[in-house]
Specification:
Radius of gyration: 45 Å
Structural class: alpha+beta
Strand content: 5-15%
Order of helices and strands: HHHHEEEEHEHHEHHHHHHH
Number of strands: 6
């Protein structure tokens, strides 16, 4: 009689345990700490796609930090919570700079990327997203080409008295609907972010900046606090480390190993410089080629045509040479001064006329 009660109690404990520990909570109990390689935790193609979908910079800032979409996966301060990304804008003439900064601590920030927007005199707008050298390495540039002109372009040049956007959020002060989330692995993040990229647009990689703004625009805005504190975690210093270690290990430090390597190089060079004594192989297939009767007739006709055209060319050249020789021989050459007849004087003319009268 007690078996049904025990079975029901066992089912109840299983249900309570399954509802108490969800897969998400079990995942959150194992923190994912990022140790370098921050460039893979914020895809700039997604940033470009979100920028084209935004109405203004406040909307763009909310899209970057939306806890439902979870576009960012950056955790620079290693507190097991994704850092908040704030937006700061600087304007000068037809140039607009949108700086994306990570809020790491109280008065502690790090630049992530810069969006450069420029409008020329023909009202044509160009945009580039440039990653910070500390996070993405040198010359990491994305050139987005939108199918339709984004609405946010009209936001920058709507009036002459334009006030640049400056985020009012900082450490401990976030939007009302904002909540933090924990970073995921890079494999999961790449699969998750792929859904948020607008595939109608084109995102090209480049290493050349279209417009180089004046450095004074960045004055008082750029923050590289994390880079100054941890200079060895930059992209350029984290990537080539394995290559340097392998190259160092491959060198023969022991004298015996060095001697053996030198002997091996000498034998290889002697084999390379050795003269060739063997005869080149003859192609027996070409020498012993068997042709069908049709192929023999075609080859005979081809040889006949070639000999005929060759004879025609030789005759034409011979005819041309004979004609040129005849022309040269018939051409009168100018006589020299000694061969010319002397001029008749006046007395000679009178004597000639007298002789004609006597006749």
């Amino acid at each position: 009689m007690h078996y049904p009660k025990l079975f029901l109690a066992f089912l109840a404990t299983i249900l309570l345990y399954s509802t108490a520990v969800t897969p998400l909570q079990a995942y959150n109990n194992t923190p994912f700490i990022q140790r370098g390689g921050f460039s893979q935790n914020l895809d700039l193609n997604v940033v470009a796609s979100l920028f084209g979908q935004s109405r203004d910079l406040s909307d763009f800032e909310w899209r970057l930090n939306d806890p439902y979409n979870q576009i960012s996966n950056l955790d620079l301060n290693a507190d097991n919570q994704v850092d908040y990304l704030r937006i700061i804008e600087r304007a000068r003439g037809n140039m607009r700079l949108i700086i994306i900064q990570a809020v790491i601590g109280p008065n502690y920030f790090q630049d992530i990327a810069v969006i450069e927007i420029y409008r020329n005199r023909y009202n044509k707008t160009s945009i580039q997203i440039i990653g910070d050298p500390y996070i993405y390495g040198d010359n990491y540039i994305v050139n987005p080409y939108y199918v339709y002109a984004p609405v946010i372009y009209n936001y920058f040049w709507r009036s002459r008295n334009y006030n640049p956007y400056y985020s009012r959020y900082r450490w401990g002060r976030y939007p009302r609907h904002y909540r933090t989330w924990r970073p995921r692995s890079i494999q999961y993040y790449n699969r998750h972010v792929y859904k948020h990229i607008d595939r109608r647009n084109r995102y090209d990689r480049s290493r050349v900046r279209k417009n180089k703004p004046n450095r004074n625009i960045y004055r008082g805005v750029r923050r590289n606090d994390y880079a100054r504190k941890h200079p060895n975690r930059s992209y350029n210093k984290m990537q080539p480390r394995t290559y340097q270690q392998k190259a160092h290990r491959s060198k023969p430090n022991h004298p015996d190993k060095r001697r053996n390597s030198q002997q091996a190089n000498q034998t290889i060079n002697s084999k390379r410089n050795r003269p060739i004594t063997h005869k080149p192989r003859s192609n027996k297939a070409e020498n012993q080629r068997i042709q069908s009767p049709r192929q023999q007739t075609r080859e005979r006709e081809r040889n006949h045509q070639q000999s005929y055209h060759k004879n025609q060319r030789d005759q034409s050249t011979q005819r041309h040479t004979t004609q040129s020789r005849e022309i040269r021989s018939t051409r009168q050459q100018p006589q020299s001064r000694q061969q010319r007849e002397p001029r008749q004087t006046r007395t000679d003319r009178q004597s000639d006329s007298a002789r004609s009268m006597e006749r």
